[in-house]
Amino acid sequence: MPLKADQLLALFPNPVLTPILGEPDHESIRILQKEVNKNLAAIPSNLGCGTKGLLCLSVSTTVYSTISSTPVVPPQNPGSAPSADEIAACNSAMAIASLHATHELDVKLYEEYCAADRLSVKLLTNAVEDIFIASLADKHTGYSSVTTKQIFQHLNDEYCEIDDVMLIANQARISAAYDPNLPIETLWTQISEAVAYAEAGKSKFTKEQILNAAVAAVTASGVFQDDIKKWKEKAASDKTYANFKPYFMKAHRSWRASLRTTAGNHFPRVNSAATPPYTQNSSPLSASTFSNEFSESIANLATATSADRAMLATMSDTIATLSAQLADAQAKLVSSLLENQKLLKQLSNRGQRTSGGAGGANKGDYDPW
Can you list the alpha helix ranges (DSSP code H) found in 175-283? Predict the structure, then answer.
């Protein structure tokens, strides 16, 4: 039997969504989106890659592709029973029994899929005042035919005010330099959140733009140059974001393993029992002198290694800081250009109103200046 509404609700980490008081805005919509995403991802499902639950019910296909490389094919209504043609095609009683068993499973998956969507819609309509989503409801059936995606699409279209300056800043964020010292998931989150933000602002990224941003973020880290070079040499058909994620995850694991190996390598200690018997009158390179010089060399090597790592960490921080400063400067520049355009338009309008010459404004003209 498919899971019922109360069983699905018990799986939700957010059985009550954060209510939006008054008119929705981008931040309040974003909070709802995250809560609903977590709820649907908590439902066990074999759809797609089998690890994202029913997240496909609340995010767009583009956003989902940045989270999972396996697309989801939504289950279709299988009907109340197998069709007569399907039954006629069976050549034994066992085949007919198998057909009915498969049909029952399809019904279960479809009903569970629909129930999860209906429950999410119910939670959303409880969290958002009816006046802000009433245009979605049918006068006879209410929200019964409205989907979770449709509610979020409506909220973003009507109340999510993201201007051009914000979108330009988001373009800088999606390709901001990745810090390889952080978990690789931070890069995927950076990209998926930027893609969702762009969609909310009605300026979707293309698949090519998403891939280019990921490559740029990794390249800016300054660590994976050889891996990026090999990636660029791949066939065009292989260079997709879905393929880039596992490729770079493997490169990142190798890089981390090389660090552990380097840190774990130690020069062997000098074995005093094997040291030749030097005398007081022998060569000036005595056993103690050799030991001291060897120890000093090891210390210098350790210091140099530590300094190199510190320099690499500083470079990563500097790159991240410069990327943030660049994004901020770009946003300010665009804001200034828009403001200049506004002032020029006002001056132009004023000039037109005063173009009558020294005689002043025409009779009956309204001059707000």
Answer: 185-200, 207-219, 225-232, 241-264
Our CA dihedral for 322, 221, 212, 51, rounded to 10 degrees, sits at: -120
The contacts of residue 287 (CB under 8 Å, 6+ apart) are 272, 275, 278
Cβ of 291: how many Cβ atoms within 10 Å? 14
Supply φ then ψ for residue 142, to 5 degrees.
65, -130
Exposure class string for 137-168: b at 16+ Cβ within 10 A, else e: eeeeeebeebbbbebbebbbeebbebeebbbb
pLDDT in tens, the chain (369 residues): 678 888 999 999 999 999 999 999 999 999 999 999 999 999 999 898 889 999 999 999 999 999 988 999 999 999 999 999 999 999 999 999 999 999 999 999 999 999 999 999 999 999 999 999 999 999 999 999 999 999 999 999 999 989 899 999 999 999 999 999 999 999 999 999 999 999 999 899 999 999 999 999 999 999 999 999 999 999 999 999 999 999 999 999 999 998 887 655 443 443 433 333 333 444 444 445 545 555 565 556 555 555 566 666 667 667 767 777 776 776 677 667 667 766 766 665 665 555 444 444 443 433 332
Give the chain's count of helices (H) and strands (E): 12, 0
Strand partners, 20: 128
Neighbours of 223 (CB within 10 A): 20
Nearest Cα to Cα of residue 59 among 120, 129, 131, 122 = 120
d(CA 354, CA 369): 10
**Residue 335 in tokens:** 């804001």
Amino acid at 39: N
The length of the chain, given as a count of residues: 369
Written as six digits, the tokens of 205 are: 């990224």
Phi, psi dihedral angles at 252 (to 5 degrees)? -70, -40
CA 219 to chain centre: 18
3-class secondary-structure state, position 48: coil
pTM of the complete model: 0.63
Is residue 128 classed as helix, strand or coil in its secondary structure?
Answer: strand
